[in-house]
Amino acid sequence: MILLTKLLLAHIIGDFFLQPKKWVKEKEQKKLKSDKLYLHVLIHVILTSIFLWDISLWPIVVTIGITHLIIDAAKLLIQKKKTKRLFFFIDQLLHIIVIFLCYYLYTESLFNQNDIVTENSLLLLVCLLFLTIPVSIIMKIIFAKWDIEKLTKDNQSLEDAGKYIGILERILVFIFIIFNHWEAVGFLITAKSVFRFGDLKKSKHRKLTEYILIGTLISFGIAIITGIIYTYIITYV
Q1: Contacts of 111 (CB under 8 A, 6+ apart)
Q2: CA 20 to 30 Å from 145, out of 6, 63, 82, 195?
Q3: Residue 29 reports pLDDT greater than 70
Q4: How deeply is 175 buried, as exposed, middle or buried, from its count of CB atoms within 10 A (0-12, 13-18, 19+)?
Q5: What local confidence, expressed as pLDDT, does residue 231 receive?
Q6: CB-based contact 100:4 (threshold 8 Å)
């Protein structure tokens, strides 16, 4: 695993620490004509070579260098202003895939699906997925009996911010519970209460206060129950 760690470390340093914003802007403007594109790829090649420090692993260095150039060049040519965020994640995903492929193809390490796809890992994936969109839909159905839009019409906020905050807090609560850190759950509830207190105090709206309180309790409650069920299953079943 030390080889894989080195490859990932080289990628992180090359893509995020040694690539100034002005390089990114220049690449987006000049695309394939930008010398910063090729300098960026050269930095990745140098970093990978330094971290590996093994001449016998030169195919990994060459593969990462060529694929990095192809992936970055394709992104610059295809992406538009509206799709920059999407292509950023696609770009990073492709680089990570290449790194893993290099690790398994150019070393004696064998990829064993049974080591990853286990009952516990599948159950963990089910729980995490359940705590995202499904729970958001469940909560939306629960609150359907109240006119929430009327309560929140004067409150300016980012689009879908509440949904994403809810997803993140449920995942954090779930992780804290399966690692038996209940005190962290209490800290998270306290932190959210402190941030919400100012809004509720300014609004002086009892219905809005009740809506936020109910939503928080349901969200945390579902995450806690899910965490307890997961822990019980992997421990006793």
Answers
A1: 104
A2: 195
A3: yes
A4: middle
A5: 92
A6: yes
Residue found under tokens 């219905």 = 207
Q: How confident is the model at residue 230 (pLDDT cuts 50, 70, 90)?
A: very high
Tokens representing 206 are 């009892």
At residue 226, the 3 state secondary structure works out as: helix
Q: Residues 86, 52: contact at Cβ < 8 Å?
A: no
Single-letter amino acid, residue 25: K
Q: CA triplet 116, 63, 101: central angle to 5 degrees? A: 10
Please, which contacts does 114-123 make with residues 24 or more away whose CB atoms are closer than 8 Å? 120/234, 123/230, 123/233, 123/234
Backbone Cα Rg of the chain: 24
Query: Could you give the CA distance from residue 219 to residue 195 in angstroms, rounded to a whole number?
Result: 17
The pLDDT tens digits of the residues spanning 37-77 come to 999 999 999 999 999 888 988 888 999 999 999 999 999 99
Task: Calculate the CA 99 to chain-centre distance.
Answer: 18
Contact 130, 226 (CB under 8 A): yes
Using one digit for the tens of pLDDT, what is the confidence trace for 99-119?
999 888 877 654 455 555 677
Least confident of 96-100, 179-183, 197-201: 197-201
